[in-house]
DNA sequence: TAGTGGTCTAGACCACTTC
DNA sequence: AAGTGGTCTAGACCACTAA
């Protein structure tokens, strides 16, 4: 009753927000046009447009240029816990190649899809520190964009010491390694079975590049994930960093209280 | 070279962003005024102002109404791992009251400070589910806003089954329990020593209320934390939820890869 | 009091979508 | 071709800050 009711633009936004909350404007539903709003509230089109901007930055509304403004569909939320790395996900699997498989096959669309690029790059500072190599020395970079139901959900880029993965399917650029845990499988085959993971998370607003890549609606934050994977000996075998569209994930961790 | 160089407003923002990145505009430094920019770039004041809005939503710049626009100071980042719950933080400590202590004493300011309110409230759905009580039944709510160096950094609200904490210092409204782990200490004293924690994290944009409470600059996301604390028996003794200013924290978790 | 950011109007043009 | 969001101008007023 005190905030949000000040300026005309905020007032209009508040009214629309209420309509959305009440379900009167359902997800996917079309909002009144800027010109409609301007007339109805007796304000300039600029001001009515401002209301839409406010709702966009709230993440409540998406606009399609030339078409209209729509109530944002809420995406299904995926819960991310340590189980996603579980051994049975990758230990039993054969290393599959997705070679000539049509990328829009039904299964691929449902299951999720990932594009992938592998290349040898000089290690930057965080990568070098994590992998214990010198800055600038060559490491394998495996960059992927993961898509689910047609929407890109996150990027993930892994780095490996070149000696660890040289000659494995991982670095063979032609077929590529399919899906989940392919990297872990390859490491295990080389006698470097992953055993422990440290994940660092932070949230921030996306860069312009990330907004394009992940097709983020304005006002949606991202979560940056940095992951260090070690063997039972404590040797680091993978360093990875990724960017997730915040609204599509919940992270969950369970741990014993330390002494 | 392709993004960000389109409209005049974006062009101005890009120039300023470059000045910030290069250090020519240092953190805390004052940006040119809207009227300056308008004249220099030969655009309307509205457009020059738009550039500032873009930088604000990027989180790069803060504005002080009537004073100017300033490059945002980057806050020291606190790393949050399971160690912050370590037993030695609360097991040995006496339960201190902060009674008549001046809230702006030097130590309090440095160490951080928290306001606190305890009350008996009806359990809402998530609280009831977590604590295993019926919706609407009375539970103790302990709400606090944590401040560090004069800036509010996060809120945290804990819920306890009323039988578990009845008659303890926790629910005594007059003195209040000081600082870290006071709640855990009290539970341990009642034979309900916390043993295991599950934390769920998600990132989103703040509500208007949160923006005020945490004094968030526009464009800064928050991380919502939900925490379930259990004894060694698996009994839930605390459910808590909090909202953190995203830019001031990194979360870190280490775990063994499950089977 | 002078300078600042914030917001508004009224009208214009553009780029895009839909039919 | 009609309707849409996006952006811009030029000028106005307000609320706030600082000297």
UniProtKB/TrEMBL annotation, chains A, B:
It comes from the Bacteria. PROSITE patterns: HTH_GNTR (PS50949). Residues 6-74 form the HTH gntR-type domain. InterPro entries: Bact_HTH_transcr_reg, Chorismate_lyase_/UTRA_dom_sf, Tscrpt_reg_HTH_GntR, UTRA, WH-like_DNA-bd_sf, WH_DNA-bd_sf. Pfam families: GntR (PF00392), UTRA (PF07702). Keywords: DNA-binding, Transcription, Transcription regulation. PANTHER family: GNTR-FAMILY TRANSCRIPTIONAL REGULATOR, MANNOSYL-D-GLYCERATE TRANSPORT/METABOLISM SYSTEM REPRESSOR MNGR-RELATED. This is GntR family transcriptional regulator.
């Amino acid at each position: 009753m005190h905030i949000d009711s000040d300026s005309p633009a905020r007032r209009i936004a508040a009214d629309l927000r209420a309509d959305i909350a009440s379900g009167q404007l359902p997800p996917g539903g079309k909002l009144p046009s800027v010109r409609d709003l301007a007339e109805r509230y007796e304000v300039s089109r600029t001001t009515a447009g401002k209301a839409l901007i406010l709702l966009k930055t709230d993440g409540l509304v998406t606009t399609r240029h030339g078409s209209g403004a729509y109530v944002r569909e809420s995406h299904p939320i995926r819960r991310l816990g340590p189980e996603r790395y579980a051994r049975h996900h990758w230990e039993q699997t054969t290393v599959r190649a997705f070679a000539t498989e049509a990328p829009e096959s039904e299964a691929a669309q449902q299951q999720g899809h990932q594009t992938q690029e592998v290349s040898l790059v000089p290690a930057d500072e965080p990568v070098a520190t994590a992998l214990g190599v010198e800055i600038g020395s060559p490491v394998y970079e495996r960059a992927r964009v993961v898509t689910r139901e047609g929407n890109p959900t996150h990027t993930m880029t892994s780095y490996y010491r070149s000696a660890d993965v040289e000659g494995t399917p991982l670095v063979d650029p032609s077929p590529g390694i399919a899906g989940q845990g392919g990297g872990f499988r390859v490491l295990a085959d080389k006698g470097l079975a992953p055993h422990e993971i440290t994940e660092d998370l932070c949230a921030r607003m996306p860069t312009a590049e990330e907004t394009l890549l992940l097709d983020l609606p304005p006002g949606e934050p991202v979560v940056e994930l940095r992951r260090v994977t070690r063997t039972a000996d404590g040797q680091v075998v993978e360093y990875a960093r990724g960017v997730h569209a915040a609204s599509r994930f919940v992270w969950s961790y369970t741990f014993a209280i330390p002494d």
